[in-house]
């Protein structure tokens, strides 16, 4: 098979490339399952101990951009092919033009801009190719890195759901953030 040329490829920018999730990506799911703090921030809960069979089953279900419950899963990799994370395009309502994005970067790769760069690709796809109008996100209070990333991308805080999430023995606020297409365009032009 010949080598791919990515010079004019929509699904990458100068830092990362998104590719379809592969059945072989089960190892990433399995290994990041041992990071409880990452699970708490991403899914607001402590998961049961990870199993190889569960990781393989998940990867098989979402491989090759298969949509599961309105979600499409992509692997995030560096331009050198290092798998650093997962990003999920979550279509809420095509009719109303609403969607969400879920992202998870392995701890050893956080703080390098990979998450922001991957988000930029999916936002461009949603707003400029799918004609969607609003991306909504919720973040657990105290997750300052994720809040900062969203604000860098142009999201605004729309509200706070007080004491809405229970984890680690107490209730936490859930921060609601939103980005409309108009806000996105304003942010990308400036």
Radius of gyration: 17 Å
Shape: globular
Protein structure class: alpha+beta
CATH topology: Aminopeptidase
How would you describe the overall organization of this protein?
With 190 residues, the chain is α+β, with helices and mostly antiparallel strands. It has a single domain (16-189), classed as Gcn5-related N-acetyltransferase (GNAT) (Aminopeptidase). Helix content is 32%, strand content 34%. It contains six helices and eight strands, in the order βαααββββαβαββα. The protein has helices at residues 26-32, 36-43, 52-62, 114-129, 144-152, 181-189, and strands spanning 16-20, 67-68, 71-78, 83-93, 98-105, 134-140, 156-167, 170-180. Strands 1, 2, 3, 4, 5, 6, 7 and 8 form an eight-stranded mixed beta sheet that branches. A hairpin with a 2-residue loop joins β7 (156-167) and β8. α1 (26-32) packs across α3. The longest helix is centred in the middle third of the chain and has 16 residues, at 114-129. The termini are far apart.
Notable traits:
single chain, 190 residues, alpha+beta, Aminopeptidase, eight-stranded mixed sheet, 6 helices, 32% helix, globular
Outline of the structure:
This protein is 32% helix and 34% strand. By secondary structure, it is of the alpha+beta class.
Secondary-structure map:
Elements: E1 16-20, H1 26-32, H2 36-43, H3 52-62, E2 67-68, E3 71-78, E4 83-93, E5 98-105, H4 114-129, E6 134-140, H5 144-152, E7 156-167, E8 170-180, H6 181-189
Parallel strand pairs: 5-6
Antiparallel strand pairs: 1-3, 2-3, 3-4, 4-5, 6-8, 7-8
Helix pairs in contact: 1-3
């Amino acid at each position: 098979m010949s080598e791919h040329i990515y010079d004019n490829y929509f699904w990458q920018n100068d830092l990362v490339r998104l590719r379809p999730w592969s059945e072989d990506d089960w190892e990433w799911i399995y290994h990041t399952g041992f990071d409880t703090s990452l699970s708490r921030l991403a899914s607001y809960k402590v998961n049961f101990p990870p199993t190889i069979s569960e990781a393989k089953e998940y990867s098989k279900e979402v491989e090759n951009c298969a949509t599961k419950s309105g979600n499409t899963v992509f692997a995030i990799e560096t331009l050198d092919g290092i798998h650093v994370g997962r990003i999920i395009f979550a279509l809420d309502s095509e009719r109303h033009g609403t969607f969400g994005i879920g992202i998870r970067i392995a701890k050893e790769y956080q703080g390098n801009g990979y998450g922001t760069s991957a988000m930029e690709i999916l936002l461009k796809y949603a707003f400029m190719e799918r004609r969607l109008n609003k991306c909504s996100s919720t973040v657990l209070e105290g997750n300052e890195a994720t809040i900062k990333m969203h604000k860098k991308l142009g999201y605004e805080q729309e509200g706070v759901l007080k004491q809405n999430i229970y984890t680690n023995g107490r209730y936490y606020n859930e921060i609601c953030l939103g980005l409309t297409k108009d806000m996105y365009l304003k942010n990308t032009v400036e």
